[in-house]
Amino acid sequence: MTDRATDTDRRSQRERMLAGDLYIAADPELAEEGRRAARLIERYNATPADEAGERRRVLGDLLGDIGDDVEIRPPLYCDYGYQIRIGARSFVNFGLVAIDVGRITIGDDVLIGPNVQLLTATHPVEPGPRRAKFEAAEPITIADNVWLGGGVIVCPGVSIGENTVVGAGAVVVKDLPANVVAVGNPARIVRHL
Fold first, then answer.
1. Which domain covers residue 73, as residue numbers?
2. How many structural domains does the chain have?
3. Tell me: the pLDDT tens digits for 147-185?
4. By CB neighbour count within 10 A (0-12 exposed, 13-18 middle, 19+ buried), where does 185 fall?
């Protein structure tokens, strides 16, 4: 990770975050965007299941893009929302945590089990920058027709290829190709489809 967050860097913390560079998450602009997302998430999570139109409107305000016929069962949690893109006909079960300080792209026809975590945030290993509250992010990409079992954790910078199945409780720390089954911690390929 390149540290471009120097005193001579005139970019806003938001611009740094969106570029994947080190930034300060407590920045007032980012804090306000986080509060906006929190209000929308609270509204979404409180909207009854029989009010599908209202749920869809809230998701449209929260997320960067959402395809047709997407179902996300509450509760849903994210940082900003606008960094998340979900393709058509995807299904997300209860309790998704999407730390979207980096872009999260979810393809079409994806199945996401309960209590899945999509984690784009990274922190410096060195204690000084970490103590100074710097962080960064690496994007997550989940291709079409992927199935993430319950409790899967996808770590920063990971891409998962189309048709891949990730078994319940797996921790995905590196890219997975298309058409495989992966299980375990760290996730390892156990079968080709």
1. 13-192
2. 1
3. 999 999 999 999 999 999 999 999 999 999 999 999 999
4. exposed
